[in-house]
TrEMBL record, chains A, B:
<dbReference type="InterPro" id="IPR025826">
    <property type="entry name" value="Co_AT_N_dom"/>
</dbReference>
<dbReference type="GO" id="GO:0009236">
    <property type="term" value="P:cobalamin biosynthetic process"/>
</dbReference>
<dbReference type="Pfam" id="PF02572">
    <property type="entry name" value="CobA_CobO_BtuR"/>
</dbReference>
<dbReference type="GO" id="GO:0005524">
    <property type="term" value="F:ATP binding"/>
</dbReference>
<protein>
    <submittedName>
        <fullName>Cob(I)alamin adenosyltransferase</fullName>
        <ecNumber>2.5.1.17</ecNumber>
    </submittedName>
</protein>
<feature type="domain" description="Cob(I)alamin adenosyltransferase N-terminal">
    <location>
        <begin position="13"/>
        <end position="32"/>
    </location>
</feature>
<keyword id="KW-0808">Transferase</keyword>
<dbReference type="GO" id="GO:0008817">
    <property type="term" value="F:corrinoid adenosyltransferase activity"/>
</dbReference>
<dbReference type="InterPro" id="IPR027417">
    <property type="entry name" value="P-loop_NTPase"/>
</dbReference>
<dbReference type="Pfam" id="PF12557">
    <property type="entry name" value="Co_AT_N"/>
</dbReference>
<dbReference type="InterPro" id="IPR003724">
    <property type="entry name" value="CblAdoTrfase_CobA"/>
</dbReference>
Amino acid sequence: MRSRLPVTDANLTAEQYKQKMQRRKAIQDQRLAERSLEKGLLVVHTGNGKGKTTAALGMVLRSLGHGYRVAIVQFIKGAWEPAEKAALERWGEQLTFQAMGEGFTWETQDRERDIATARAAWEQALVFVRDPIYRLVLLDEANVALKLGFLDVDTVLQGLLAKPDDSHVILTGRGAPPKLIAAADLVTEMTLVKHPFREQGVKAQPGIEF
Amino acid sequence: MRSRLPVTDANLTAEQYKQKMQRRKAIQDQRLAERSLEKGLLVVHTGNGKGKTTAALGMVLRSLGHGYRVAIVQFIKGAWEPAEKAALERWGEQLTFQAMGEGFTWETQDRERDIATARAAWEQALVFVRDPIYRLVLLDEANVALKLGFLDVDTVLQGLLAKPDDSHVILTGRGAPPKLIAAADLVTEMTLVKHPFREQGVKAQPGIEF
Protein backbone atom coordinates (compact mmCIF):
# COMPACT_ATOMS: atom_id res chain seq x y z
CA MET A 1 0.00 0.00 0.00
CA ARG A 2 1.18 3.52 -0.73
CA SER A 3 1.35 6.04 2.05
CA ARG A 4 -1.54 8.50 1.93
CA LEU A 5 0.36 11.19 3.82
CA PRO A 6 0.00 14.54 2.03
CA VAL A 7 3.75 15.08 1.70
CA THR A 8 3.24 18.35 -0.14
CA ASP A 9 1.43 19.86 2.87
CA ALA A 10 4.29 18.98 5.20
CA ASN A 11 6.69 20.84 2.91
CA LEU A 12 4.70 24.08 2.84
CA THR A 13 5.97 27.11 4.71
CA ALA A 14 3.71 28.46 7.44
CA GLU A 15 2.63 31.26 5.10
CA GLN A 16 1.89 28.86 2.22
CA TYR A 17 -0.10 26.65 4.60
CA LYS A 18 -2.08 29.67 5.76
CA GLN A 19 -2.87 30.69 2.17
CA LYS A 20 -3.89 27.16 1.25
CA MET A 21 -6.26 27.00 4.23
CA GLN A 22 -7.68 30.45 3.39
CA ARG A 23 -8.55 29.16 -0.10
CA ARG A 24 -10.01 26.02 1.47
CA LYS A 25 -12.12 28.12 3.83
CA ALA A 26 -13.45 30.25 0.95
CA ILE A 27 -14.53 27.08 -0.88
CA GLN A 28 -16.07 25.71 2.30
CA ASP A 29 -18.01 28.92 2.97
CA GLN A 30 -19.33 28.92 -0.60
CA ARG A 31 -20.43 25.31 -0.29
CA LEU A 32 -22.27 26.06 2.94
CA ALA A 33 -24.03 29.01 1.27
CA GLU A 34 -25.13 26.81 -1.62
CA ARG A 35 -26.53 24.14 0.67
CA SER A 36 -29.56 25.81 2.13
CA LEU A 37 -32.22 23.13 1.74
CA GLU A 38 -33.63 21.27 4.72
CA LYS A 39 -35.20 17.95 3.90
CA GLY A 40 -36.27 14.85 5.72
CA LEU A 41 -33.99 12.13 4.40
CA LEU A 42 -34.38 8.55 3.34
CA VAL A 43 -31.12 7.05 4.65
CA VAL A 44 -29.70 3.61 3.82
CA HIS A 45 -26.80 1.87 5.58
CA THR A 46 -25.76 -1.25 3.73
CA GLY A 47 -22.70 -3.38 2.92
CA ASN A 48 -20.92 -6.30 4.55
CA GLY A 49 -18.94 -4.23 7.05
CA LYS A 50 -19.73 -3.40 10.66
CA GLY A 51 -21.34 -0.12 11.64
CA LYS A 52 -24.70 -0.15 9.84
CA THR A 53 -26.80 -0.42 13.00
CA THR A 54 -24.28 1.35 15.24
CA ALA A 55 -24.17 4.40 12.93
CA ALA A 56 -27.98 4.47 13.00
CA LEU A 57 -27.85 4.31 16.81
CA GLY A 58 -25.48 7.30 16.74
CA MET A 59 -28.10 9.23 14.75
CA VAL A 60 -30.76 8.10 17.24
CA LEU A 61 -28.57 9.49 20.03
CA ARG A 62 -28.15 12.84 18.26
CA SER A 63 -31.89 13.10 17.58
CA LEU A 64 -32.68 12.33 21.22
CA GLY A 65 -30.18 15.00 22.21
CA HIS A 66 -32.12 17.49 20.09
CA GLY A 67 -35.29 16.53 21.94
CA TYR A 68 -36.89 14.74 18.99
CA ARG A 69 -39.14 11.71 19.31
CA VAL A 70 -37.61 8.58 17.78
CA ALA A 71 -39.08 5.16 16.88
CA ILE A 72 -37.09 1.97 16.23
CA VAL A 73 -38.47 -1.20 14.63
CA GLN A 74 -36.24 -4.28 14.52
CA PHE A 75 -37.08 -6.55 11.61
CA ILE A 76 -34.80 -9.54 12.12
CA LYS A 77 -33.47 -9.71 15.66
CA GLY A 78 -35.96 -11.12 18.13
CA ALA A 79 -35.37 -8.79 21.04
CA TRP A 80 -33.65 -5.63 22.05
CA GLU A 81 -30.06 -6.18 23.16
CA PRO A 82 -29.97 -5.60 26.95
CA ALA A 83 -27.22 -2.95 26.80
CA GLU A 84 -28.99 -0.94 24.08
CA LYS A 85 -32.21 -1.25 26.06
CA ALA A 86 -30.52 -0.10 29.28
CA ALA A 87 -28.94 2.85 27.46
CA LEU A 88 -31.96 4.00 25.47
CA GLU A 89 -34.56 3.48 28.18
CA ARG A 90 -33.16 6.59 29.82
CA TRP A 91 -35.21 8.61 27.33
CA GLY A 92 -38.50 7.08 28.43
CA GLU A 93 -41.36 7.97 26.11
CA GLN A 94 -39.12 10.04 23.84
CA LEU A 95 -38.05 6.72 22.30
CA THR A 96 -40.43 3.99 21.11
CA PHE A 97 -39.00 0.54 20.41
CA GLN A 98 -40.61 -2.49 18.74
CA ALA A 99 -38.74 -5.76 18.19
CA MET A 100 -40.83 -7.61 15.66
CA GLY A 101 -38.44 -10.33 14.53
CA GLU A 102 -38.16 -13.77 16.06
CA GLY A 103 -34.43 -14.13 15.72
CA PHE A 104 -32.36 -14.85 12.67
CA THR A 105 -33.83 -16.79 9.77
CA TRP A 106 -31.68 -19.79 10.56
CA GLU A 107 -33.23 -19.91 14.03
CA THR A 108 -36.86 -20.02 12.93
CA GLN A 109 -36.27 -22.23 9.84
CA ASP A 110 -39.82 -21.43 8.77
CA ARG A 111 -40.19 -19.08 5.82
CA GLU A 112 -43.94 -18.54 6.14
CA ARG A 113 -43.48 -17.43 9.73
CA ASP A 114 -40.54 -15.20 8.76
CA ILE A 115 -42.62 -13.56 6.04
CA ALA A 116 -45.59 -13.01 8.37
CA THR A 117 -43.29 -11.49 11.00
CA ALA A 118 -41.59 -9.18 8.49
CA ARG A 119 -44.96 -7.99 7.18
CA ALA A 120 -46.27 -7.32 10.68
CA ALA A 121 -43.06 -5.35 11.37
CA TRP A 122 -43.62 -3.32 8.22
CA GLU A 123 -47.23 -2.53 9.18
CA GLN A 124 -45.98 -1.26 12.55
CA ALA A 125 -43.19 0.67 10.82
CA LEU A 126 -45.71 2.40 8.55
CA VAL A 127 -47.64 3.67 11.57
CA PHE A 128 -44.44 5.33 12.89
CA VAL A 129 -43.31 6.58 9.46
CA ARG A 130 -46.64 8.34 8.85
CA ASP A 131 -46.82 9.90 12.31
CA PRO A 132 -45.32 13.43 12.29
CA ILE A 133 -44.54 13.13 16.01
CA TYR A 134 -41.50 10.99 15.11
CA ARG A 135 -38.64 12.98 13.61
CA LEU A 136 -36.54 9.82 13.11
CA VAL A 137 -37.68 6.26 12.42
CA LEU A 138 -35.06 3.50 12.34
CA LEU A 139 -36.05 0.34 10.46
CA ASP A 140 -33.25 -1.91 11.68
CA GLU A 141 -32.31 -4.82 9.38
CA ALA A 142 -35.21 -3.94 7.05
CA ASN A 143 -32.85 -4.34 4.08
CA VAL A 144 -32.41 -8.00 4.97
CA ALA A 145 -36.19 -8.54 4.91
CA LEU A 146 -36.24 -6.89 1.46
CA LYS A 147 -33.27 -8.89 0.23
CA LEU A 148 -34.82 -12.18 1.31
CA GLY A 149 -38.06 -11.26 -0.43
CA PHE A 150 -40.04 -11.19 2.85
CA LEU A 151 -41.08 -7.65 1.92
CA ASP A 152 -41.74 -6.25 -1.55
CA VAL A 153 -39.53 -3.27 -2.36
CA ASP A 154 -42.23 -1.45 -4.37
CA THR A 155 -44.69 -1.78 -1.49
CA VAL A 156 -42.10 -0.40 0.93
CA LEU A 157 -41.13 2.52 -1.35
CA GLN A 158 -44.83 3.35 -1.83
CA GLY A 159 -45.31 3.34 1.96
CA LEU A 160 -42.28 5.56 2.54
CA LEU A 161 -43.90 8.26 0.37
CA ALA A 162 -46.17 8.90 3.36
CA LYS A 163 -43.19 10.14 5.41
CA PRO A 164 -43.67 13.77 6.55
CA ASP A 165 -41.31 16.22 4.82
CA ASP A 166 -39.19 16.97 7.86
CA SER A 167 -38.70 13.49 9.30
CA HIS A 168 -35.91 11.04 8.54
CA VAL A 169 -36.15 7.28 7.99
CA ILE A 170 -33.11 4.98 8.16
CA LEU A 171 -33.08 1.44 6.75
CA THR A 172 -30.12 -0.73 7.74
CA GLY A 173 -28.87 -4.16 6.73
CA ARG A 174 -26.91 -5.98 4.06
CA GLY A 175 -28.08 -6.23 0.49
CA ALA A 176 -30.23 -3.10 0.13
CA PRO A 177 -32.04 -3.58 -3.21
CA PRO A 178 -31.08 -1.26 -6.09
CA LYS A 179 -34.55 0.33 -6.22
CA LEU A 180 -34.22 1.38 -2.57
CA ILE A 181 -30.75 2.81 -3.21
CA ALA A 182 -32.10 4.71 -6.22
CA ALA A 183 -34.89 6.24 -4.12
CA ALA A 184 -32.72 7.13 -1.09
CA ASP A 185 -31.13 10.53 -0.36
CA LEU A 186 -28.15 9.34 1.67
CA VAL A 187 -26.58 5.93 1.14
CA THR A 188 -23.46 4.64 2.86
CA GLU A 189 -21.90 1.27 2.21
CA MET A 190 -20.02 -0.09 5.20
CA THR A 191 -17.15 -2.04 3.64
CA LEU A 192 -15.38 -4.78 5.55
CA VAL A 193 -11.64 -4.18 5.54
CA LYS A 194 -10.65 -6.35 8.51
CA HIS A 195 -12.73 -8.26 11.02
CA PRO A 196 -11.39 -10.09 14.06
CA PHE A 197 -14.15 -12.77 13.97
CA ARG A 198 -12.81 -14.17 10.78
CA GLU A 199 -9.15 -13.39 11.11
CA GLN A 200 -8.43 -13.97 14.78
CA GLY A 201 -11.27 -16.17 16.05
CA VAL A 202 -12.48 -13.37 18.31
CA LYS A 203 -16.07 -13.76 19.50
CA ALA A 204 -18.84 -11.16 19.63
CA GLN A 205 -18.04 -8.88 22.56
CA PRO A 206 -20.06 -6.52 24.75
CA GLY A 207 -19.73 -2.88 23.69
CA ILE A 208 -18.66 -3.89 20.18
CA GLU A 209 -21.34 -6.20 18.74
CA PHE A 210 -24.08 -5.78 21.36
CA MET B 1 -27.82 -2.51 -11.74
CA ARG B 2 -28.74 -6.16 -11.35
CA SER B 3 -31.29 -7.13 -8.75
CA ARG B 4 -29.67 -8.72 -5.71
CA LEU B 5 -32.83 -10.61 -4.77
CA PRO B 6 -32.01 -14.26 -4.05
CA VAL B 7 -34.46 -15.62 -6.60
CA THR B 8 -33.48 -19.20 -5.79
CA ASP B 9 -34.63 -18.79 -2.17
CA ALA B 10 -38.05 -17.57 -3.27
CA ASN B 11 -38.47 -20.70 -5.38
CA LEU B 12 -37.69 -23.15 -2.58
CA THR B 13 -40.47 -25.23 -1.05
CA ALA B 14 -41.10 -24.74 2.66
CA GLU B 15 -39.27 -28.01 3.36
CA GLN B 16 -36.28 -27.03 1.17
CA TYR B 17 -36.13 -23.64 2.92
CA LYS B 18 -36.17 -25.36 6.30
CA GLN B 19 -33.36 -27.70 5.28
CA LYS B 20 -31.31 -24.82 3.92
CA MET B 21 -31.73 -22.88 7.16
CA GLN B 22 -30.85 -25.99 9.21
CA ARG B 23 -27.55 -26.24 7.29
CA ARG B 24 -27.04 -22.52 7.81
CA LYS B 25 -27.65 -22.88 11.54
CA ALA B 26 -25.15 -25.75 11.79
CA ILE B 27 -22.50 -23.57 10.10
CA GLN B 28 -23.40 -20.64 12.34
CA ASP B 29 -23.16 -22.77 15.49
CA GLN B 30 -19.78 -24.10 14.43
CA ARG B 31 -18.51 -20.58 13.77
CA LEU B 32 -19.64 -19.44 17.20
CA ALA B 33 -17.86 -22.41 18.79
CA GLU B 34 -14.64 -21.55 16.94
CA ARG B 35 -14.74 -17.93 18.03
CA SER B 36 -13.98 -18.12 21.69
CA LEU B 37 -11.35 -15.43 22.12
CA GLU B 38 -12.10 -12.20 23.95
CA LYS B 39 -9.78 -9.37 23.10
CA GLY B 40 -9.69 -5.62 23.49
CA LEU B 41 -9.80 -4.31 19.94
CA LEU B 42 -8.08 -1.57 18.02
CA VAL B 43 -10.93 -0.36 15.81
CA VAL B 44 -10.64 2.00 12.81
CA HIS B 45 -13.53 3.72 10.99
CA THR B 46 -12.32 5.41 7.82
CA GLY B 47 -13.43 6.29 4.28
CA ASN B 48 -15.21 9.21 2.66
CA GLY B 49 -18.74 8.12 3.59
CA LYS B 50 -20.87 9.16 6.56
CA GLY B 51 -21.11 7.06 9.69
CA LYS B 52 -17.53 6.97 11.01
CA THR B 53 -18.24 9.03 14.12
CA THR B 54 -21.89 8.00 14.41
CA ALA B 55 -20.96 4.28 14.40
CA ALA B 56 -18.40 5.02 17.12
CA LEU B 57 -21.13 6.83 19.11
CA GLY B 58 -23.30 3.73 18.73
CA MET B 59 -20.51 1.67 20.32
CA VAL B 60 -20.18 4.30 23.06
CA LEU B 61 -23.91 3.91 23.71
CA ARG B 62 -23.64 0.11 23.93
CA SER B 63 -20.64 0.34 26.27
CA LEU B 64 -22.47 2.80 28.51
CA GLY B 65 -25.45 0.40 28.53
CA HIS B 66 -23.10 -2.32 29.81
CA GLY B 67 -22.04 0.00 32.62
CA TYR B 68 -18.51 0.53 31.28
CA ARG B 69 -16.59 3.77 31.69
CA VAL B 70 -15.93 5.50 28.35
CA ALA B 71 -13.61 8.36 27.35
CA ILE B 72 -13.90 10.47 24.17
CA VAL B 73 -11.21 12.79 22.82
CA GLN B 74 -12.05 14.97 19.83
CA PHE B 75 -8.98 15.82 17.77
CA ILE B 76 -10.28 18.21 15.14
CA LYS B 77 -13.63 19.66 16.13
CA GLY B 78 -13.37 22.51 18.60
CA ALA B 79 -16.27 21.64 20.84
CA TRP B 80 -18.81 18.99 21.63
CA GLU B 81 -21.94 19.26 19.49
CA PRO B 82 -24.75 20.43 21.81
CA ALA B 83 -27.08 17.50 21.00
CA GLU B 84 -24.37 14.88 21.60
CA LYS B 85 -23.46 16.70 24.81
CA ALA B 86 -27.09 16.78 25.96
CA ALA B 87 -27.52 13.10 25.16
CA LEU B 88 -24.28 11.79 26.67
CA GLU B 89 -24.27 13.99 29.76
CA ARG B 90 -27.01 11.74 31.10
CA TRP B 91 -24.28 9.28 32.04
CA GLY B 92 -22.46 11.76 34.27
CA GLU B 93 -19.05 10.51 35.37
CA GLN B 94 -19.42 7.25 33.45
CA LEU B 95 -18.42 9.24 30.36
CA THR B 96 -15.41 11.56 30.13
CA PHE B 97 -15.20 13.97 27.20
CA GLN B 98 -12.34 16.18 26.04
CA ALA B 99 -12.58 18.42 22.98
CA MET B 100 -8.99 19.32 22.18
CA GLY B 101 -9.29 20.69 18.68
CA GLU B 102 -9.89 24.32 17.79
CA GLY B 103 -12.12 23.73 14.82
CA PHE B 104 -11.27 22.57 11.33
CA THR B 105 -7.85 23.25 9.89
CA TRP B 106 -9.28 25.80 7.48
CA GLU B 107 -10.61 27.76 10.44
CA THR B 108 -7.33 28.10 12.33
CA GLN B 109 -5.14 28.54 9.19
CA ASP B 110 -2.12 28.06 11.43
CA ARG B 111 -0.28 24.76 11.09
CA GLU B 112 1.97 25.18 14.13
CA ARG B 113 -1.07 25.75 16.32
CA ASP B 114 -2.88 22.77 14.74
CA ILE B 115 0.13 20.54 15.40
CA ALA B 116 0.43 21.71 19.01
CA THR B 117 -3.30 21.12 19.57
CA ALA B 118 -3.18 17.63 18.02
CA ARG B 119 -0.20 16.67 20.17
CA ALA B 120 -1.88 17.93 23.34
CA ALA B 121 -4.96 15.88 22.37
CA TRP B 122 -2.78 12.81 21.90
CA GLU B 123 -1.12 13.27 25.33
CA GLN B 124 -4.59 13.43 26.88
CA ALA B 125 -5.69 10.42 24.83
CA LEU B 126 -2.71 8.41 26.10
CA VAL B 127 -3.75 9.04 29.70
CA PHE B 128 -7.19 7.53 28.95
CA VAL B 129 -5.83 4.68 26.80
CA ARG B 130 -3.45 3.55 29.58
CA ASP B 131 -6.06 3.77 32.34
CA PRO B 132 -7.77 0.39 32.85
CA ILE B 133 -10.85 2.16 34.25
CA TYR B 134 -11.89 3.02 30.66
CA ARG B 135 -13.20 0.02 28.71
CA LEU B 136 -13.67 2.11 25.55
CA VAL B 137 -11.69 5.15 24.37
CA LEU B 138 -12.88 6.99 21.27
CA LEU B 139 -10.26 9.10 19.48
CA ASP B 140 -12.59 11.03 17.21
CA GLU B 141 -11.04 12.35 13.97
CA ALA B 142 -7.61 11.13 15.09
CA ASN B 143 -7.09 9.67 11.59
CA VAL B 144 -7.28 13.18 10.15
CA ALA B 145 -4.54 14.39 12.52
CA LEU B 146 -2.42 11.42 11.36
CA LYS B 147 -3.20 12.01 7.70
CA LEU B 148 -2.24 15.69 7.93
CA GLY B 149 1.02 14.76 9.63
CA PHE B 150 0.08 16.54 12.87
CA LEU B 151 0.73 13.25 14.67
CA ASP B 152 3.34 10.62 13.82
CA VAL B 153 1.79 7.21 13.17
CA ASP B 154 4.69 5.28 14.74
CA THR B 155 4.42 7.34 17.91
CA VAL B 156 0.68 6.70 18.07
CA LEU B 157 1.03 2.94 17.44
CA GLN B 158 3.73 2.76 20.11
CA GLY B 159 1.43 4.57 22.56
CA LEU B 160 -1.50 2.28 21.77
CA LEU B 161 0.60 -0.72 22.89
CA ALA B 162 -0.06 0.52 26.45
CA LYS B 163 -3.79 -0.26 26.05
CA PRO B 164 -4.97 -2.81 28.66
CA ASP B 165 -5.88 -6.20 27.14
CA ASP B 166 -9.62 -5.91 27.69
CA SER B 167 -10.25 -2.34 26.59
CA HIS B 168 -11.14 -1.11 23.11
CA VAL B 169 -9.86 1.96 21.30
CA ILE B 170 -11.61 3.43 18.22
CA LEU B 171 -9.94 5.88 15.83
CA THR B 172 -12.24 7.63 13.36
CA GLY B 173 -11.70 9.91 10.37
CA ARG B 174 -10.83 9.91 6.71
CA GLY B 175 -7.48 8.78 5.42
CA ALA B 176 -6.38 6.31 8.12
CA PRO B 177 -2.72 5.60 7.31
CA PRO B 178 -1.82 2.10 6.06
CA LYS B 179 0.34 1.36 9.13
CA LEU B 180 -2.64 2.00 11.41
CA ILE B 181 -4.86 -0.23 9.27
CA ALA B 182 -2.22 -2.95 9.37
CA ALA B 183 -2.07 -2.79 13.19
CA ALA B 184 -5.85 -2.64 13.75
CA ASP B 185 -8.13 -5.61 14.58
CA LEU B 186 -11.36 -4.27 13.09
CA VAL B 187 -11.40 -1.85 10.17
CA THR B 188 -14.49 -0.58 8.37
CA GLU B 189 -14.43 1.75 5.41
CA MET B 190 -17.53 3.91 5.17
CA THR B 191 -18.02 4.32 1.42
CA LEU B 192 -20.02 7.22 0.01
CA VAL B 193 -22.71 5.93 -2.34
CA LYS B 194 -25.03 8.97 -2.33
CA HIS B 195 -24.96 12.18 -0.33
CA PRO B 196 -27.65 14.87 -0.37
CA PHE B 197 -25.14 17.72 0.28
CA ARG B 198 -23.54 17.23 -3.08
CA GLU B 199 -26.47 15.97 -5.08
CA GLN B 200 -29.40 17.97 -3.78
CA GLY B 201 -27.89 21.02 -2.07
CA VAL B 202 -29.20 19.84 1.29
CA LYS B 203 -27.47 21.41 4.28
CA ALA B 204 -26.18 19.75 7.44
CA GLN B 205 -29.23 18.92 9.56
CA PRO B 206 -29.83 18.25 13.26
CA GLY B 207 -30.06 14.53 14.05
CA ILE B 208 -28.14 13.65 10.90
CA GLU B 209 -24.84 15.56 10.91
CA PHE B 210 -24.88 16.89 14.50
